[in-house]
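#struct-pred

JT: dropping the chains for the assembly here, can someone run the whole complex?
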Amino acid sequence: MVIVMSSRKLQVERSLILFYGVASFVILFILVPIISLFLFFNYNVLIKIFHTPILISELKSAFITTFEAAVLSTCILVVIGVPVAYVLARREFKAKPIIEAIIDMPFVVPHPVAGIMLLTAFGSRGLIPVGIEDTFWGVVSVMLFVSAPLFIDTVKLGFMSIDVSIEHVARSLGASFYRTFFTILLPLCSRSIVAGIILALARSLSEVGALLVLAYFPKTVNILILEWLDTLGLPYAIAVSCLYLIIIFIMFIALRVITRSYVVY
Amino acid sequence: MLYIENLYIKVKDLEIRVESLLISKGTYAILLGPSGVGKTMLLNAIAGFVKPLSGRIVIDNEDVTDKPPEKRGIGIVPQNFALFPHMTVFDNIAFCLKLRKLPKDEIRRRVLEIAKFLEIEHLLNRRPSTLSAGEAQRVALARAIVSEPRLLLLDEPLSNIDPERKYKAIELLRRVVKNRGLTVLHVTHDISEAFALGDYVIYMRDGRIVFQGSVEMFAVSDLARPYIDLIEGALSRYRVIRGVESI
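RK: done, full complex below.
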């Protein structure tokens, strides 16, 4: 019996060799650039940055702008994205495919084009002349624009996975729509909301193309890396990149740990 | 009491027309019919989740047609029981009592009372994911009943129960409903459930009610003829539960 089982297991393992091979290639393809970035990291360059007032001030301001804008855009997205995701998950209406396509647009629009679109919409001479170019709100708008589909689609799938009869039972037991939404649906969707927050933050922190067009200033870390690559050289760009990666990595680990207690189901 | 008059519902391609339906107080009514004829849709309209295009729904002499689901005084036990997975069994049962802002002691007393009646006291601290189908059915029933509904809607509540345990589940349903004097509308496509539990049978076909009457009348109707073996089997099997010797 044991021999039969182990030989069967071996057979299964053997047939998965191709998959293991592909998986190893993918992992290496991602891991090698990360390792090589840190191998080329020069500690002395970082020390030099920290001891040059103009550079450290620029770096500090870029980090603050980036994280403030990313957190703010994600907060706005949670407030406006959760209701949109619920409606798309639960309601059927004629315009739904069109609305879904509009929400997914930032996925397919090239990033510089997204920047131009926002500029023509909300720039000083735009359709709605708010004047967001080269402002902090310009950065927030770009981040909101590019991360919205990721967040909404993730949360929508979360709502879709909740059986509609759970909602019906809660309502029949006397809970109003909003009571049901906050005490039943939101807790059951919390895992998807957290996943959406992480994806939205990640997307916001990695954006550069649209920012180059709409909001070069105040500089975000990505813009600063590009600028230093051009003006100070590769070692400086590598130093900031490594620092940025480490901070993002710590931030996402912390976020997962903190939100674990809020994920109730 | 449930009274429906000139109800017309249309959702996508499914149309339902109910000219008149009356279920008296304390009656156990069975809504029978093949799959896809609109039984669940009718249940959803009664519960307030589907808006009828015309007609009236009256529960205990109150017109609830335009009332939201939470104001209708209806208890629901769906096919999958729909227990709140992030709450314990106690919190599931206490959900409606907490909404009514009852004192904590009162909530505890009422939950324990219903749990004792349904023999689920030992499950109160468990999560729904750890329950068997039979246990989940009892918890769902407890949660619906503790709200003291004017009408209890059961949507195929026995379809997830193993055939061996079905007898016990039917016995329990019958006991609970009779003990509390509840008015029940039980949706099923299983004709044997109708004869095990029902006082009154409503038969739907193509979105219309083609029969409504006592279970005895249904047994001798043309609609029951193809199922005569099933009916005889159900009658002999559930005779003790129904507490009758002959129908």
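JT: nice. The first helix of chain B runs from residue 39 to 47. The mean pLDDT of chain B is 89.
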